[in-house]
Write a structure and sequence with these properties.
Strand order of the largest sheet of chain B: 2-3-1-4-5
Structural class of chain B: alpha+beta
Mean pLDDT of chain A: 95
CATH superfamily of the largest domain in chain A: Type I PLP-dependent aspartate aminotransferase-like (Major domain)
Largest interface: A-B, 25 and 17 residues
Number of helices of chain B: 2
Helix content of chain A: 25-40%
Largest sheet of chain A: 7 strands, mixed
Radius of gyration of chain A: 21 Å
Number of strands of chain B: 5
Strand order of the largest sheet of chain A: 2-8-7-6-5-3-4
Strand content of chain B: 25-35%
Radius of gyration of chain B: 11 Å
Helix content of chain B: 10-25%
Strand content of chain A: 5-15%
CATH class of the largest domain in chain A: Alpha Beta
Mean pLDDT of chain B: 88
CATH architecture of the largest domain in chain A: 3-Layer(aba) Sandwich
Low-confidence stretches of chain A: none
Oligomer: heterodimer
CATH topology of the largest domain in chain A: Aspartate Aminotransferase, domain 2
Shape of chain B: globular
Number of helices of chain A: 11
Number of strands of chain A: 13
Structural class of chain A: alpha/beta
Shape of chain A: globular
Order of helices and strands of chain A: EHHEHEHEHEHEEEHHEEHEEHEH
Largest sheet of chain B: 5 strands, antiparallel
Distance between the termini of chain A: 24 Å
């Protein structure tokens, strides 16, 4: 077992690690000095907690190009945001289209509604690199479905959906566009207005650098999901009905204010560094991985060839080595931490041709160094040579 | 600011979010005496907060808060034990 310092963390697709130091500092400060319940009591600690939540909403609105930060509601994660959007918007008889690389956080709610006869669902094919076929999308939109649910960046191949083009198409068709930005929020530019997005689901603990237990949903004015939960909001307390105004409408119960304090520090870190600077570094790391792996005998790469056409994710398989074993050997021999298997996205693996074994997924992050990538590459080459050499 | 009755006005909103938005706008505009306080029970039975400022600033505050008027429940000026709608 290696020291924590010597571990090479390439699992930022699951959750980013480490976080910027300001995230821990903000959460400690909240727990030690703030600690009140946001938007509930009138005293100063409650007010300060509410300010933290407010400022985080404002920072996220700036990041996503949203004009009214009230339309961002906090959730535990992208899954809760996607469930709120899907169950809150879809009505009996709605027709929905989605893509063949969706995560189960989108696919399972949609399949549930389909199997219960509430909606009809069409799954659009993607190519072997996980890219959406825009021609097929255009054809599907001619029937004017109610909703397109699409993942912005695949958590398996890293393939990026060209949001601006897709958003123009859905807008022209009068179809609502729900974007799963679990991998992309904070990593790729997102502009809800220019990209024509109607519902944006994101998580806080990946590229936004926040802690686990944070995430959110933005919805365009006029797109009004029914709440999944109803309860106390600290507002309209004389009424026994849920308020219809945002964000209270979709934020019942005490918020994860300590987590949101950390998320605010994470988003502020992105604003300070500049998303384009972070993106450039992550493209360089991804390119280094791709370049180092693509001509190695015994290693198969999946996803788009160009690093700039993916989120920072590289999925591979090793000839003669199942992903679980490869991942285990990479950790034991080289301290390289990856994620192996199906990544909660069986549809994506069917598309790539890697179902049911899955892949080994390398996901560098902003704090990954070139030296760490090189060490991971050395491990991969060692495993590939050992296998192709016939152990 | 002195704390004697009649010295303050408040602007009330349904949500904490809008109160904080109003606080930000009022502070940026340099309105005197801006502070969050519990909503006076005479005005609302809500458990939330409201934004308070100097009563002498009520007209200027109303102008600053015009962009939020769709969500503004009201501006109230304190008299002895009561809050009168402003204007």
């Amino acid at each position: 077992m290696q020291d924590a310092e010597k571990l090479i963390y390439l699992d930022n697709g699951a959750t980013s690690f480490p976080k910027p130091p300001a995230v821990e500092a903000a959460m400690s400060h909240f727990l030690l000095k703030v600690g009140g319940s946001p938007g509930r009591s009138g005293h100063r600690l409650s007010q300060e907690a509410a300010r933290v939540v407010f400022e985080c909403r404002e920072a996220l609105a700036r990041l996503f190009g949203a004009t009214d930060s009230r339309r961002i509601v906090f959730t535990l994660n992208a899954t809760q945001a996607l469930n709120t959007a899907i169950y809150g918007i879809l009505k009996p008889g709605d027709r929905v289209i989605t893509t063949a690389v969706e995560h189960n956080s989108t696919m399972r709610p949609l399949r549930d509604l389909e199997h219960r006869g509430v909606i009809s669902l069409e799954v659009l094919p993607c190519d072997r690199a996980g890219r959406l076929d825009l021609g097929r999308l255009e054809a599907a939109l001619r029937t004017r479905p109610r909703l397109l649910a699409a993942v912005h960046a695949s958590n398996v191949s890293g393939a990026i959906v060209p949001l601006r083009a897709v958003g123009a198409m859905t807008r022209a068709a009068g179809t609502l566009l729900l974007v799963d930005a679990a991998q992309s929020a904070g990593a790729l530019p997102i502009d809800v207005e220019a990209d024509g997005i109607d519902l944006l689901a994101f998580t806080g603990h990946k590229a936004l650098f926040g802690p686990q237990g944070t995430g959110g949903l933005w919805a365009r004015p006029g797109v009004e999901p029914e709440p999944l939960f109803r309860g106390g909001t600290g507002s309209n307390s004389e009424r026994e009905e849920q308020p219809d105004f945002w964000p209270d409408r979709l934020e019942s119960g005490t918020q994860n204010a300590v987590g949101i304090a950390g998320l605010l520090a994470g988003v502020s870190f992105i604003e300070e560094k500049g998303l384009s600077v972070i993106r450039a570094h992550e493209i360089a790391l991804t390119k280094r991985l791709i370049d180092g792996l693509q001509h190695v005998a015994g290693i198969t790469l999946y996803g788009p060839e160009a690093a700039a056409e993916r989120s920072p994710i590289v999925s591979v398989s090793f000839a003669g080595l199942v992903p679980s074993e490869a991942g285990f050997l990479l950790e034991e021999g080289f301290g390289v931490l990856t994620r192996v298997g199906l990544h909660c996205a069986p549809a994506a693996h069917r598309t790539l041709g890697t179902y049911p074994q899955g892949t080994v997924r390398f996901a560098p992050g902003f704090f990954t160094s070139d030296a760490e990538i090189d060490a991971a590459l050395e491990g991969c080459r060692y495993l590939a040579a050992k296998k192709t050499g016939g152990r | 600011m002195s704390g004697e009755p009649g010295a303050f006005a408040i602007a009330t909103f349904h949500s904490t979010h809008m109160v904080l938005k109003a606080e930000k706008l009022l502070k940026e505009a340099g309105v005197v005496g801006v502070r969050l306080v519990p909503v006076p029970s005479q005005v609302s039975s809500d458990c939330g907060v409201t934004v308070r400022f100097a009563a002498a600033e009520a007209a200027r505050a109303a102008a600053v808060l015009r962009p939020l008027e769709d969500d503004l429940q009201g501006i109230f000026v304190e008299a002895v034990g009561v809050w009168n709608p402003f204007p």
